[in-house]
Amino acid sequence: MNRQAENKHETPAPILVAASKLAFVGRCYSLLFVMFAWLVPPATSVDAAERPNVVLLLADDLGWKDIGCYDGPVKTPTLDSLAANGVRFTDFYSGAAVCSPSRATTLTGRQHLRCGVYSWIADWEQNSQLLDREVTLAEVLQSNGYETVHLGKWHLGMPTPQKPKKLTPAEHGFDYWFGMANGAHPSHKNPTNFLRNGKPVGPIEGYSCQIVVDEAISWLDEEHNADKPFFLNVWFHEPHAPIAAPDDIVSEYGKLADPAAVYSGTIDNTDQAIARLLAKLHEVDAPEDTLIIYSSDNGSYRADRVGHLRGTKGSNYQGGIRVPGIFHWPGHITKGVVEQEPAGLVDVLPTVCGLLEIDKPENVHLDGSDLTSVLMGRKKKFSRHQPLFWHLPASGPSMALRDGKYSLVAHRGYEFPKDKEAMATLKKQIEAILRKAGTYDDEIAGGGFDKQMFEGFKNKEADKLRGQFIKLNMFNESWIPAIKAGVHRRFELFDLAKDPSQRTDISQQQPKVFERLKQQMLTINERVIADAPDWHLIKSGSQPVAGMSIEKTTKVHRLDSTRRSPFDAFIYVNRIPEKPEEGESAEDLAGRIFGRLANQEGRIHVKLPPGMKRPAYQGFKIALESGSESHAGRCFTCHHLPGLQQSTSKPPTPTLRNRAITKAQLHAVLANETHRGIKLDTTDINRLYALIQTFTDVLDSEFRNLILKTTVLDTSGESE
């Protein structure tokens, strides 16, 4: 690749700037750095000029059994070739069962409720959008010297006259964008609603997938800086309804009026568009210089395109969330592999970071895992740090979890306040209109009446009433309190190895597995819900402040972080400063805290939460002490508060949070040559060990009790 190394983006994306302020430059390695260095080996530095281009191709509503390489009926030689020369996942999953939530998860590697997206977004009605505070894949790549381009459907929030302050792709890390808020209007054919960097383009002749690729080719020809790698985020509209494709393609799959044939034609047309894009990419760079990822945002709305799977789009059964997943990077990842490891779009951001050897977002909980070892032939063991998890509140079932061969689903124990009587009346009126026109069977062919209610009718009178139905059924932000307080009362467990169609609930036969997965599901969900913003309380167009929803959940005021350990409760109740003042070093901050504690001890004002006893408090003072005298650990010189890490050091100082280490390991590390100048006795080390145990997070529900149940430390005796 003929790129020149440059130091680009001196001012990173705003959210990255905020995150980076948690780390301050230090000169020495901490007492505990070597202890954890083996846990977090330093990343290999790779020059931006040597990094590959990244292309993410996302279909819209394409099912698991649509394309050729997944035994589907559509001719997709381009996609089949990518799969044959890369890695094709058999059990790959969308970020959610509907559009907007899945796209939020894809760009962030986080469960979409954390990102502010509860359901598909209606910009004219809802405040909901992808939160400004979220770190997107585009922002990560942009800060690493990439040109970033979004092409096609967005559906993560866009300004409207009703909600003019909503963000665009530009505010989420894209240098250039060409697309629209939601779907192509009036259909894939000759769309009229494309925007280029926020400005209307007007009617365009052609089909949406080809138009999007035309724009990609134009950008590569006219805008691309050949000295920089690029990220193309190509989100097609096909095969989402209302559908359209060239007659000559449709005719290969059936009659021109057959919805199934048109549906297949849109996928075939997209495959041909991707072929044109790949040809252009090969002109720009060698194939081995471009990482390509292909998938779909959710399962198909057609029951005949999800194979034997249960459910379709909108369902958290397998048919609604299982989609194609193809990774292609010749010469780097394994070739021609059919991979059975469960994976999904939630893994895209951490995997791209892993493959490119760049840092993941700092101080951000990623729900997805890095698939690099899987894609590289498993030279290292792959271990998912958290089961795949879905929570789409309006879905049925509303929650799902995949762990190995097991799938657990959960059903809501509460209802949303919908006008079901009015919705039923509209459905009857629409059916009557279609039957009177003699087009009922043609309109619903392949999808069923209920499914077509969400995809659209050709009959204008019927479709007008459908719009009223959609508005009544649409997610309402006033439901958020019910979602946050809601419980799940019915759970089903399936063994996907024996029962991929999810027909037999085995929760009674496997009680230990059931209880383990149920607890995992509820624990993950509790943390996800705690992060989810309260859009119904927010002024139109505004962004929720970080930690707002967590404060409401924990009933703890002024807490603006997501850290939830006994140590953080100690910091909170004692009003201990966590961040240096302007011009203050990390070492100076530690000294200021030490002096403050001495003052509080003199007035018997030191409070300890449950889980933090006297030895841990004494260990905290040892960690604060600087210098070379006895009992000075000087840990916080490098493990900076509040993140307990230092990413700017070389190699980076890892965080001390949520680490598992034995007392014997701690003693062994402190005997290392690196620490010969530190004078700690056995009692000091035991106290440091007690402090380390307080850095482990608890559930949000438990954190409130840590605040409320503190005890006062009597510095002359035991806790009172």
Write up this protein:
The protein is of the alpha/beta class and 720 residues long. 33% of the residues lie in helices and 12% in strands. The strands form three sheets. Strands 1, 2, 3, 4, 5, 6, 7, 8, 9, 10 and 11 form an eleven-stranded mixed sheet that branches. Strands 12-13-14-15 form a four-stranded antiparallel sheet, with helices on one face. Strand 5 (195-196) and strand 6 (199-200) form a beta hairpin. The radius of gyration is 27 Å and the shape is globular. Residues 1-46 and 546-558 have low confidence and may be disordered.
What do we call the CATH homologous superfamily of the largest domain?
Alkaline Phosphatase, subunit A
> Which second-level CATH architecture of the largest domain applies?
3-Layer(aba) Sandwich
Largest sheet: 11 strands, mixed
Strand content: 5-15%
Q: Radius of gyration over alpha carbons?
A: 27 Å
Point out poorly predicted stretches.
1-46, 546-558
> What coarse outline follows from CA principal-axis ratios?
globular
| CATH uppermost class of the largest domain | Alpha Beta
Here the CATH topology of the largest domain equals: Alkaline Phosphatase, subunit A
By DSSP (H or I, 4+ residues per run), the number of helices equals 24
* N-end to C-end Cα span: 67 Å
